[in-house]
# Entry
Amino acid sequence: MKTFAISAWAVALTAFATLSMSAEMPFNQAQFDATRAAGRPVAVVFHADWCPTCRAQAPVLKQLTESKELESVTLFVANFDTENTLKRSLRVTQQSTIVVFKDGKESARSTGDTQPDRLSALLHRAIS
# Structure
């Protein structure tokens, strides 16, 4: 039993470490609230699988958040079709909207942009 508990603890710790180092993750309200409350840089992208703009944004955002310069920004990917409470609370009406937070407060927002330089500048609003 003791070995099982130690193994379970090691797996949980590894999973947590992986999530905390990850720059992009599926939206989770508790994690989002904790990240904002801690004042860490965060952005939420409202993604819809059926949206061509969202599909164009996704690889650009992934590449940007994996860069050394923006690795501190946590990018939460929220499902536009199911995260209705979040959409209302952030006043989001369109898919492909990105809302950026710095020190727990909204610092920037964009809808429909797919240009790497403009998306980079948007995400930089979370850290500068």
Summary: Strands lie at 24-26, 42-47, 74-79, 97-102, 105-111. The helical segments are 2-21, 29-37, 52-66, 84-90, 116-124. Confidence is low (pLDDT under 50) at residues 4-22. The first strand starts at residue 24 and ends at 26.
